[in-house]
């Protein structure tokens, strides 16, 4: 995806709900423009969307690029700078500043389909019992620029919509917060936060499934049309790419993540 220099279109239709995106940034300057372009060129007016950009001590040009977008869209981006403490702490910092009725936690090297927010907004307006909306995830392979619908859990989006009780998702496993939206009042009701001890992976899965366990009477929907494009980096520098070489993958992930959920 190449967004630089492309004008942002201004849609007419407005969102019915207020949204917050809490985004942890760390040395992702080369992806910032693509990320913000995909937000500000949505098919629905994003005036009701706030972006809480938490800079986790970046040393590249991340801050400069965020500032450029903030100047272009005044009042839309809350920029927060903190010392490097990791993704979990950055997201928790963003949660303190988020004010939307629904909240998402995308990664800043990824991006969204043109109709992403419009489809999510329509789904939320349709069902007042929803606690979480899970959106389709498709890989974007950076080295070729091609899309790949090969996620192991892609069957969850074989239908236009699948709605299930939070207490019984059957085999519709949800491990990512990046492609999902959460009702923020339910997060705050239970004072739910990301656990920084769960590293290098499963931080998302730990958060999502604690959220579902705490809200068993709500419903969860999986929808195909809004697409979250997950970037597979060419240089293999993502946290997930190097996880198997980190001893905490076999210690802390189990101790503080999997065993905590079982308890």
Keywords, separated by commas or semicolons:
263 residues, alpha/beta, globular
Write the layout of secondary structure elements.
Blueprint: E1 19-25, H1 29-40, E2 49-55, H2 62-72, E3 77-81, H3 87-97, E4 102-104, E5 111-112, H4 116-126, E6 130-141, E7 146-148, E8 161-165, E9 180-183, H5 184-189, H6 203-214, E10 219-232, H7 252-262
Parallel strand pairs: 1-2, 1-4, 2-3, 6-10
Antiparallel strand pairs: 4-9, 5-10, 6-7, 6-9, 8-10
Structural summary, described in words:
There is one protein chain. The chain has about 260 residues and is an alpha/beta fold. The protein is built from 7 helices and 10 strands. It has helices at about 30-40, 60-70, 85-95, 115-125, 185-190, 205-215, 250-260; strands at about 20-25, 50-55, 75-80, 100-105, 110, 130-140, 145-150, 160-165, 180-185, 220-230. Strands 1, 2, 3, 4, 5, 6, 7, 8, 9 and 10 form a 10-stranded mixed β-sheet that branches. Helix 1 (about 30-40) packs parallel to helix 2 and helix 6 packs parallel to helix 7. The longest helix has 12 residues, at about 30-40. The termini are far apart. The relative contact order is 0.16.
Counting helices, strands and paired strands, the structural category is alpha/beta
Q: Shape from CA axes?
A: globular
Mean pLDDT: 94
Q: Count every helix, treating DSSP H or I runs of 4 or more residues as helices.
A: 7
Distance between the termini: 43 Å
What percentage of amino acids are in beta strands? 15-25%
